[in-house]
Amino acid sequence: MDHDQKTKWECHASVELVPGADQVWPFIADFFGIHKLLPTLDICYQVEGIVGEPGCVRYCARYTGVSDNEAVKWATEKLLSIDNAQRSLSYKIIANNLGYESYMATMKVVPRGSSNKDGCTIEWSFVVEPVEGRTKEDMASHQDYILKTIAKSIEEAHQDDQ
C-alpha cells in the first residue's frame, strides 16, 4: 500500500544547551561520530562516500546483550544534505531492522541570541511511515530521550575541553 504524506508521522524535538552553536555544531556535523554521543549505540562507521559530504552512508548498531555478535538493532543512513553555515543536516534511513519505512530527518543547531555565548538549541525533526507496534507518541518520546542524551554528551564534552 502506498502511503501519502498525510499518513506519515511527523515528530519534532528540541533541547537547549549552554555552549554556543559554534561549539555544538561540530558534534552534530560529525555524521560518523554519533555513537560518541549515544551510549546506546555500540558502533557507527562509514560504509561509503566522502566524510561530511552528501551521499555518504553510515552503519549504526547496538550489540549490547548479544552473545553471538549479531546486532540487536541496526540502521544504515545516508546523508542527504549538510549546510555548515546554517548548521543543518538531513539524512534518511536506507535500511534497518527497526521497522522504519520512508524515514527522513533534519537536525539543526540554532543560536539562542546574537552572541555565541548565549547558548543554542538543537532541533531534530523526522517524518516516517507509521511503525507497526509503536505509536506516534512513543516515537516522539523516544526521539526526545535520544536528543536529551545527545545534548548531555555534548555538554559534558564541552566541559572537558574547558
UniProtKB/TrEMBL annotation:
The protein's name: Lachrymatory-factor synthase
InterPro entries, alphabetized: LFS, Polyketide_cyclase/dehydratase, START-like_dom_sf
UniProt-listed Pfam families: Polyketide_cyc2
Lineage: Eukaryota, Viridiplantae, Streptophyta, Embryophyta, Tracheophyta
TM ranges: none
CDD domains, per the entry: PYR_PYL_RCAR_like
